[in-house]
Structure formats: C-alpha cells, structure tokens
C-alpha cells in the first residue's frame, strides 16, 4: 500500500490540471470523455476528489475549473459544473474502497482498448508487460459504466492491484500520487503498444520464463525505492511537463 500524503487542494489542482494537459500532448484523449481524478483533504473523512468538468477537452482543463466531488458525484463547492456520471461511478468506487488510491486514471487509448478486446488480454512477454506481472486485474464488460450496482464488482476486480484492464473497454491505473499513477498507466500503455506491434510481426513471440517474470516486479520496485531524492515517477512526470512546456 502507498502512504503518500495528500496534497493541499490548491497544489492538487495544479498537479492534476497539468496531467490533463500532458495527456493531451500524448494523444491519450477521447474527445470530452474519460477521467483523471485526485483525492483532496476532506473534513468529513469521506473521499473528496477532483475531476474534469464534463464538456471540456483535456487541453481546456485548468486548476480553477476542476470540480471537487464526493464518491456519489455531489458538487461539493456548488459550482454548477456538470460531471460525467461514469466518472464518479468508476472513480468514486475505487477512491472509497482503496485509501491508498489517491489518484485514478482511466483511458480509451487505441492500444489499450485493442488489448482489452483480446480474450487473453495482456501477455507478459515484453519488457514493459513483464514489469506488471501479477499486478494486472481484469473486469468484465457490463455496458457503459453508469450503474452503481457495478461498483462492488469493479472494486473486487481491482483488488489490491495497481492496474486494471476493463475488458472490451480500456485501461485503468491507481497510485498514491499523480506522478506514480501516471508512470503506472504509461507502463501499461507501452506494454499494450508493444504487444500489438509484436503481433504484427511474423513468427511466434519468445516467452519469458515464469521464474524471471516473478523477479522482475521486485527488481523494478527495488530500483525505485533505492533512488535518492525525488521518486523516479516524479522525475519522469516533471521531465515530460518540461518537454511539452506545461506549467502548473
């Protein structure tokens, strides 16, 4: 479990809004749909989190227009801005059930949706998918996610894992910070892209032995934990913000 402290709301707004704009630069947008959410401190002890207002493209999301809602989708500050129901059905369920999941990201990238449509899902036979061995859950498609009854099943499908493939649908990742969640989703997205590319080549893929797969996640975590200063995920996030000229 992650024990990252919550950012104060002003800082959280800047961090999440910058991430929305980063997704735009990476081409991970889906018109006005999909969501990135970040938990903020709440006096009631119930999860409050920031989400994009429905109707805006990711490039239009700013720290000021993010909407603070609770797990039931209530507009805490009474802004009157509309929120997509699927956003609080999925994200609210995970935020409520996973105290460590301060940040939740969900996308419909082409590579992610394509792998989600395959019966076998993600194979652990490339550099990035090997990093995710044992940490990817699957959730069966039940239609557009607008019903509260699906929430317990979503939570069970994710379990204690950090990555979820929504079958026939898309990808989801959770994390203790925006940067950590972003790196996890980026890794899952790269794994899907490489799987699609390798499937286009002639001949079978070379398999990675299970004993190697079992060691890879621990090796990755040890590298991250042993790094001095800012976390690798934060350094990666900051580097990409600089690359695309994104200011908080």
TrEMBL record:
Task: Report any Pfam family annotated for this entry.
Answer: Aldolase_II
Q: Which SUPFAM superfamilies match?
A: AraD/HMP-PK domain-like (SSF53639)
Domain Class II aldolase/adducin N-terminal per the UniProt entry, residue ranges: 14-196
The record's GO CC annotations read: cytoskeleton
Q: Which InterPro entries match?
A: Aldolase-II_Adducin_sf, Aldolase_II/adducin_N, Aldolase_II/adducin_N_sf
Top-level taxon: Bacteria
* Family affiliation: Belongs to the aldolase class II family.
The protein depicted here goes by the name Class II aldolase/adducin family protein
């Amino acid at each position: 479990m992650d024990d990252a402290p919550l950012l104060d709301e002003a800082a959280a707004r800047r961090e999440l809004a910058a991430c929305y704009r980063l997704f735009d630069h990476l081409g991970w947008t889906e018109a006005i749909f999909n969501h990135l959410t970040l938990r903020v401190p709440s006096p009631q002890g119930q999860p409050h989190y920031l989400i994009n207002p429905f109707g805006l493209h990711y490039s239009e999301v700013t720290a000021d227009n993010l909407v603070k809602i609770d797990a039931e989708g209530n507009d805490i500050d009474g802004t009157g801005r509309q929120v997509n129901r699927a956003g609080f059905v999925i994200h609210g369920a995970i935020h409520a059930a996973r105290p460590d999941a301060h940040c939740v990201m969900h996308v419909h990238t082409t590579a992610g949706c394509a792998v989600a449509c395959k019966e076998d899902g993600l194979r652990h036979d490339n550099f990035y998918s090997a990093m995710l061995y044992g940490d990817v859950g699957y959730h069966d498609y039940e239609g557009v996610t607008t019903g509260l009854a699906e929430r317990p099943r979503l939570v069970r499908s994710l379990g204690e894992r950090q990555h979820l493939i929504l079958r026939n649908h898309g990808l989801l990742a959770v994390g203790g910070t925006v940067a950590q969640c972003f790196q996890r989703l980026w890794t899952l997205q790269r794994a899907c892209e490489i799987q699609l590319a390798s499937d286009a080549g002639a001949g079978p893929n070379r398999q990675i032995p299970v004993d190697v797969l079992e060691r890879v996640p621990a090796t990755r975590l040890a590298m991250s934990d042993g790094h001095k200063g800012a976390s690798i995920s934060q350094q990666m996030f900051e580097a990409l913000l600089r690359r695309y000229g994104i200011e908080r």
